[in-house]
Amino acid sequence: MSLASCRNFKDFRALARRRLPSPIFHYIDGAADDEVTYRRNTEAYETCDLVPSVLAGVETVDMSTTIFGKKLAMPLYCAPTALQRLFHPDGERAVARAAQKYGTMFGVSSLGTVSVEEIGAMIDTPKMFQFYFHKDRGLNDSMIERAKAAQFDVMALTVDTITGGNRERDLHTGFTSPPRLTFKSLFSFAARPRWAVNYLIHPKMELPHLQEHVQEGTNLATSIGSYFSTMLDQSMSWKDAEAIRAKWGGHFALKGVMSVADARRAVDIGCTGIMVSNHGGRQLDGSRSPFDQLAEIVDAVGDKIDVICEGGIQRGSHVLKALSLGAKACSGGRLYLYALAAAGQPGVERALGLMRDEIERDMKLMGARSVGDLNRGNLRFR
Q: What residues pair up with 72 in beta bridges, in sequence order?
């Protein structure tokens, strides 16, 4: 299999699996407990059918949307994800350039492997900084000030990681960051010499937003679940979220909202957006899918803040279904991480390009000349 033969999400996943050592691949691919929610996130879209209109004059369609005061050329952006240089030496640099090429937003994680300063200087497409609330208040203040100085457009506080999810695949494979060789994992790393050579010959992977404050993840190997459970502040409250919003001073979102009550509370504390998300099924297994929760959240707060649907998106038709329910945009992580692992920047560009083409083609087939033409009349639930 080659990059040129990749046509969809599953193709990129298959190519990534061939190129990554098992612990690294399963870190991207895995989820919590029995991975019921992980599967449900995508299956939810299949319980909903599209009802197209015809003779709508769709020679040209406008796929743009506006979120957080920024216009995106398509209604899908690259959600912030951690540890990207583990998957390809270029990491966030590759994803940032690909996002810029397609005129969409790129999110950088607190656990990113390229700094907000570098990304801010590299691209002028809209940028989001994803914030984890640490016990170390000095670290929290540092990240906020650095993202602000780098002129990031949005801060998204992740609220669904109050403790680490039970990611059993990581426990089976022994995944840590940085990678730690064990008897169990040695063969897997040896079987992927291309990845191993790239990891060794390129500059050491670091977590630039954390390394001046904590050793975990940069110099001291740890699992993500352990990091969340020990380094993040489990006392985080609505009062803390409101204080972070005030300190940030710009567009502010909560990432990981799944209930109407929490969506309304987000409005009350001054959020300008929310990501309806369950962290890709990686936290609470058995939780509902974002798509299944979307309509009631949009009905409650969609006229007050930007509602974004995040999780399980593998096709352009999934994006159209979420937009028809009232989401302003969609976002995803695995949909570009597999492509990054498979082929770096060209892989991410191909993945985003294919998704863009699917959205455009499906809008034409739906008879929608703009994303504003998509509505609940387009949908039927089984």
A: 65
Q: Which region, left, alpha or beta, applies to residue 344 given φ > 0 means left and ψ of -120 to 50 means alpha?
A: left
Domain 3-374: homologous superfamily in CATH: Aldolase class I (3.20.20.70)
Q: Please state, in angstroms and rounded to a whole number, the distance separating the CA atoms of residues 288 and 297.
A: 13
Supply the residues annotated as catalytic.
Answer: 279
Task: Compute the half-sphere exposure of residue 81: CA atoms within 13 Å on the CB side of its CA.
Answer: 29
The Cα–Cα gap between 186 and 22 comes to 10
Q: Residue ranges per domain, the chain?
A: 3-374
DSSP string, 304-373: TSEEEEES---SHHHHHHHHHHT-SEEEESHHHHHHHHHHHHHHHHHHHHHHHHHHHHHHHHHT-SBGGG
d(CA 190, CA 211): 29
* 99-148: pLDDT as tens digits: 999 999 999 999 999 999 999 999 999 999 999 999 999 999 999 999 99
Query: Do the beta carbons of residue 317 and residue 338 sit within 8 Å?
Result: no
